[in-house]
Amino acid sequence: MAEIIKIIDTQFHIEAGYNGGNMSQEQHDAFYAELKKVFTENGFCYAERASVGCPDVILGKTCLYCHPTCLSGPVEEAHLPLLEQILSGVRTFRFYLLNKYNELQDFTPDEELEYYRTFTVSVENDLLVAFKTKRSNLFKLKSEILELEAQKIHIPTIRTPYLSGYVSISIRFVNEVYKDMVQKGLLIESSKVMGIQTILLCRAANQKELRLLEVQK
């Protein structure tokens, strides 16, 4: 049986003389030189980014983005004592606060999507309730309700610890359920033009429309 590795979304707050972006080149170079030294000596990979951004230090599932104010990212729970030990022995910066947030799942995109699919019936019921209106000419804002539902079911993962626009698989899944419900006639779409924008709206089918759907089956 594979070992279960607990992974935590973590921030190690540090003081390295960043001073709101006014860090001197000398401080900058000394900070990253020591950072690279202490982490590689303890078995971590020090990875520079090809594009703009700070380097990462990596060991197993632990991957910390190394900014002069905070080292942040997914951390294997078993690595926490080692990381605190490393950061407590440095000279060019000072570690002063550890924040631990959500446990993160190590899902592939396909695994995450399969996880959400177990909630299909629940999401359908939520959308029917959320889009219900008192009259057939009343509609609700589509994007707002879909985002709230995506937030409700979102599970933090190593790739997406927070809900993040259309890169989020929970948003993608909720949109899939929504489109299927529209196709089945359970949700009725509309739109409203405001200036140069077209606002997408929706409501749940009313009892009369639902009875008609039953007859047509």
Proper CATH architecture of the largest domain? Orthogonal Bundle
Task: Count the beta strands.
Answer: 9
What radius of gyration results from the CA coordinates?
Answer: 24 Å
Indicate the proportion of strand residues: 25-35%
N- and C-termini, Cα separation? 47 Å
What does the oligomeric state look like here? single chain
- How many H/I helical runs? 7
Task: Give, in spatial order, the strands making up the sheet with the most strands.
Answer: 2-3-4-5-1-6
Shape: elongated
- The overall pLDDT average reads 93
In percent, how helical is the residue content? 25-40%
Low-confidence stretches: none
Describe this structure in words.
With 217 residues, the chain is of the alpha+beta class. The protein has two domains: 7-104; 109-216, Orthogonal Bundle (Arc Repressor Mutant, subunit A), CATH 1.10.10. Helix content is 38%, strand content 27%. It has seven helices and nine strands; from the N terminus they run βαββββαβααβααββα. The protein has a six-stranded antiparallel beta sheet with strand order 2-3-4-5-1-6. A hairpin with an 8-residue loop joins strand 2 (45-47) and strand 3. Helix 4 (120-130) crosses helix 6 and helix 5 (142-153) packs across helix 6. The radius of gyration is 24 Å and the shape is elongated. The chain starts with 6 loop residues before the first strand and ends with a helix. 23% of the residues are buried. The mean pLDDT is 93.
